[in-house]
Write the structure tokens for this entry.
Amino acid sequence: MPVLLTEAWGGCRVSDAAAEVLSLAQAGATTRGAEYVRLEHVLSALLQAANDPESHVGSALNAVGFEASSLATGWREEAPTSAGAELASPSAPDPCLRGVLRDLGAWSELTGQAYATTLHLLAACLESSAPETRGLIDAGLTADVVLSAGARYHPTTAPGTDTTDDRAFQARGTPGDPAGAMFSVPPPPTPPDLSTRTGGLRSPAVKRLLSGTLPSGARSNTPLGVLSIGRWAVCQALHYLATLGAALLLVTAAFEQGNCWLLLGVPLVVAQLNVLPMVPWLAAKAAAFWLAPAPVRWLILVSVVFELLTCRYEVWMKRVDLADPDFGLSQVRRQLRSDVKWLTGKLRGATDEG
């Protein structure tokens, strides 16, 4: 059964065998009087586990021509402490090993598992490029080789008798079984679902309108992309609040002062940069600023600033999404006009049918 490591040890889920390897590494560090558990202690414990003929890591490496006994040849470890010496009690790994353990979750995701195994642990150690791994890498054992070994090795056991949880790749099953299926066909949607929403439970019209300004692919799914989307959302919300506040204040001032000219500023305030070209948009904002009373002008300025920031983030995200550095606001406007025309035609067709 997979176990969850503490935060000091990376906080990832690992198999029982991987947890046992880490326990052996901690015991080895204690025996050698080390202050911290280091990468060499984990590698030593991994090689010790690979020597077990029943271990998955040893069987997988043997299947591709790597014997644990030959890999351990020339392996240099710290000498154990002398008899009678006080043993240390390392409570946590050193910074190098802690970084390796934090990345275990990403290694397990590569093979489609919810927890890391001994093969994931060995691959992560080898990919760390620490000096302790040089001997193994020189022998030809790399992270790619380890994962390839796990992918190719599938022990032949009777159905229901393989209880190990230390496989780096999920069992493939036999042909005809759900575990061995490559594709799965979802049940067909009902007619009401087909007429109201897509398979993603979202209106195709809404999907098309959102895809014109927001990224629809996976290229923006990066730390910087997520940060930019968050900033865009904040700027968009503040822009809408400032625009709505300015419009409401203009309406209120027009009725209180009896000045109907102030109502002309409402459509000028709500004019959008992704609809109008830059020059008409600036002219509309300048006219609204000139018509508005002094307190409302500050809200109009805030609305303009956040609208510019919103459009900047939208253009940047679409450039990344489409891999087109020349993408600009003019293309956003054309796409929006096309989407509105398409939506109008759809609504007109639905009205005619009704």
The CA atoms of residues 212 and 335 lie 6 Å apart.
